[in-house]
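FORM 12-B: Structure-to-Sequence Request
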């Protein structure tokens, strides 16, 4: 009876983020989970018939969560008249596959632009003004300085959350909601026109100055430099405090977007407080604000967003550039956990290995390749295999996250695509591992080390789970005691549905190069369970 009662209480609990060691995790129905996700192409969810043939494939890819847009134009076709059938269809279809959803609010902004707003918003530019660029031209981007726009957006968003509470409050199909999509100003670094010009000429809000002062060295270096280069002022106009150039203007833009988003987020949370996040379209280095969508939750602006939009739970990167490791790492901070809502296109060959790095190295709470329904058979298999392994490892991963009992490995790739595939060294417990990315038994020319990756989880004093593909691990003693290390026992295997280890082959001889290394071949994701000893 008591157990029954606890179970039903847990089921009704709203999904939430919870601190876990140095990291955070998503708790659903009272249990932590990792999002093994995939994001749908932008137009797919608008047709249930189109999606019908894709749902079983998404399930077969071992996804536990689908990221799907909800567009303002579909849910509020006439002002104040809501139609949630598109949302209800998504809920029904996800539940039929026993899958979860993260919903993406395509409200005022989608990739900078404002094309998902209802026609009654689009056509009324007096009530819902558009951004003016520096030369006075208008773009199809709604101004962040309109009370009307913010109120209408927040109202529709709150209606969506209220609907979710009603139809999903006891079910928890929806785990989180993304507020807007890839917010960013184009083609200038800031809006121009009466309202934005007046705001720009005003004082920098105290909340932001205080954040800079209190944050010290923890403030992202680019923002700290902007502030310092202008004399670390504790008051003044935006141009005085951050500089009048594009870089300084972008801080103003980020603040305006953050404040707007805060209002929408808070309205949604008041209706139904699911975890909420915003996603960033990352910028290429060397480009100026305005040349890229500026002012979004970019690495150099994270502190502005944290100060301006405290109701958001996460700031999240959409990572399409090759330097996945470095970009993802910037979103791991004491006040932010990593969730990658768009992790490359699902068809990119390095995507599955990036998942191992995100979970193993950066304690990610979720990972989600973009355009997940459009992969070919080979790409489908790679994601399915990677997620199958990650699903089996989920209890061990959740246990190790935030405690330093785990490490992830992927070659570092630079923004220009240069692959640094030299072995990486890592001490875990009493052992030092060298993880290489070139497979010794495969012709070098046919290898793509950027698609290799894996993780090591320590499960006992001498026991480790080693998983991934295309990595070769050598070992030595660390700290006090004998310096050499050998393999006591290495097995390949799987975890069954109850989480019990089911060993396959005992690996020895050529499979461990006569005891010299642990090897995960480049063509298949797998798990090995290894016990080492020192001599
Ligand atoms: C994404 C997607 C979708 C190699 C683009 C990514 C999605 C949006 N934007 O297909 O439109 O809704 O959030 C932009 C990153 C492009 C960089 C490519 C560099």
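FORM 12-B RESPONSE
SEQUENCE OUT:
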């Amino acid at each position: 009876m008591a157990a029954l009662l606890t179970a039903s209480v847990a089921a009704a609990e709203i999904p939430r983020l919870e601190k876990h060691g140095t990291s955070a995790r998503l708790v659903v129905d009272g249990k932590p989970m990792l999002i093994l996700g995939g994001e749908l192409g932008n137009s797919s969810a608008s047709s249930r018939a189109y999606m019908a043939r894709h749902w079983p494939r998404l399930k077969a890819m071992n996804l536990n969560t689908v990221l799907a847009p909800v567009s303002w134009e579909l849910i509020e076709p006439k002002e104040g008249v809501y139609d949630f059938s598109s949302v209800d269809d998504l809920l029904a279809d996800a539940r039929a596959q026993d899958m979860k959803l993260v919903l993406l609010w395509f409200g005022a902004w989608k990739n900078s632009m404002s094309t998902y707003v209802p026609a009654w918003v689009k056509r009324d530019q007096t009530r819902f003004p558009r951004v003016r660029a520096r030369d006075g031209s208008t773009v199809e981007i709604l101004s962040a300085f309109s009370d009307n726009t913010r109120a209408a957006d927040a109202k529709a968003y709150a209606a969506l959350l209220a609907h979710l509470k009603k139809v999903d409050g006891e079910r928890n199909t929806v785990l989180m909601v993304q507020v807007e999509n890839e917010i960013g100003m184009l083609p200038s670094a800031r809006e121009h026109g009466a309202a934005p010009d007046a705001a720009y000429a005003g004082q920098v809000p105290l909340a932001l100055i205080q954040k800079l002062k209190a944050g010290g060295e923890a403030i992202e270096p680019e923002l700290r430099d902007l502030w310092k280069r202008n004399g670390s002022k504790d008051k003044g106009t935006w141009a005085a405090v951050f500089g009048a150039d594009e870089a300084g203007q972008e801080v103003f833009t980020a603040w305006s977007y953050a404040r707007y988003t805060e209002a929408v987020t808070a309205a949604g949370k008041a209706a139904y407080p699911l975890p909420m996040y915003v996603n960033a379209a990352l910028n290429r280095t060397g480009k100026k604000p305005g040349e890229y969508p500026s002012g979004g939750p970019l690495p150099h602006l994270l502190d502005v967003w944290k100060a301006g939009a405290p109701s958001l739970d996460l700031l999240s990167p959409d990572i399409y550039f090759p330097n996945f490791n470095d970009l993802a790492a910037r979103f791991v901070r004491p006040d932010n956990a990593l969730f990658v809502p768009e992790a490359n296109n699902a068809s990119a060959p390095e995507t599955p290995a990036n998942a191992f790095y995100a979970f193993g190295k950066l304690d990610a709470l979720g990972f989600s390749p973009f355009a997940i329904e459009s992969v070919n058979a080979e790409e489908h298999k790679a994601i399915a295999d990677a997620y199958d392994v990650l699903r089996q490892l989920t209890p061990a991963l959740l246990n190790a996250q935030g405690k330093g009992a785990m490490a992830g490995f992927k070659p570092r790739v630079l923004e220009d695509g240069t692959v640094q595939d030299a072995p990486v060294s890592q001490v875990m417990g009493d052992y030092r591992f060298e993880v290489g990315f070139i497979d010794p038994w495969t012709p070098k020319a046919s290898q793509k080390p950027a698609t290799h990756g894996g993780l090591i989880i320590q499960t006992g004093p001498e026991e480790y789970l080693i998983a991934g593909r295309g990595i070769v691990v050598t070992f030595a003693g660390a700290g006090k005691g004998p310096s050499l290390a050998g393999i006591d026992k290495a097995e390949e295997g799987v975890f069954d549905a109850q989480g019990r280890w089911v060993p396959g082959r005992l690996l020895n001889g050529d499979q461990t190069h006569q005891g010299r290394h642990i090897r995960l071949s480049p063509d298949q994701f797998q798990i090995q369970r290894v016990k080492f000893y020192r001599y």
